[in-house]
Amino acid sequence: MSRRRNNGNNGLEGWPGYVDALSTLLMVTIFVLLVFVLAEAFLSYALKGSDNTITQLKEQIAELTQSLSMESSKDATLSQELAALNAQLASAQAANATLTQQLSTDTATISSLQDSQKSLQAQLSDTQAQAAAATGRIATLQAQMQAVGGSDLQSKLSDAQKLNKQDAAQIALLNQQMAALRAQLAALQVALDAAQSADKQDKVRIADLGKQLNEALARKVEELQKYQSVFFKTLSESLKGEKNIRVVGDRFVFESDVLFPVDEATITPAGKTEIAQVAKAINKIAAKIPSNVNWVLSVDGYADAQPIKGGPYKTNFDLSTARALAVLDLLLADGVPKNRLMASGMGSNNPIASGNTAADYAQNRRIEFRLTTP
What we know:
Elements: H1 2-147, H2 151-238, E1 245-248, E2 251-255, H3 256-259, H4 269-286, E3 296-302, H5 316-333, E4 341-345, H6 358-364, E5 366-372
């Protein structure tokens, strides 16, 4: 009896210890859960901030890429316009050089005629001196005849008079030659003056032409730049999210595998959808470009460096040209004006990936679109 009572008391005395242990364990568990909840909340907030930062960085990269593309386009357009300007200036300078050579020839001719004039003038002076001497001898003989008389003096007088007539005829001939020479010199001088005046006018026209061309170039570049920016924005929005389409410089690059089967130039249904988006973007901006701004959409086809094995195309040039023409035909069918399109096949030239892996070859098989001047 006494033993049972003692055992019951020992069990009741141990129960509060178990309750305290369980309470402590529960509090620790709740604390740990609270720590995990707070940590998760802080981590979610930090990740959200990182996502916003990454999004902003992506937007900045896209803006910088577009700005770089526009600058590249500007450089290419300026190079083309400056090449045309240099060609025109070279033509004008060639014409000016021809005129300068003609002036040199005329100047040499005038110098030669002036030398001839000096020679004739010297001959005329000598002849006039001889005529004066003959006249003096005639006068002397006449005086002698009057003083003495005689047939011998008469004969000498007659001979002197003949010589005097010959000298007079020679003098008259020399005078005629001098007059003709003076007239020729005067005509050449007039021609020389006219040529020099024309040369000055040509130089002024060349300077004015260069100035006008530079001003026109600046205006056209500014106008085309504005619409290239619209083109990039519109096409970027239309093709947003496409992984196989990217911007390289001033061009939109479509990998050919998106548009064509291997070694073929027939556009796939998915490719037709992509080209329809391009046509839609072109038609949208074409309505905004004034008619005096001359522009075209260049469609350039490229192939990889691997040789063609079988099929209807013998070379990569044939394949790239056929693909560019297929895209051009589809753009025409989608309503793009034919006078605003041009196509070219570039073969395996100008690769954008230098390696020889399958991925490099895929990048180099491409169609490029570029808004430029004809």
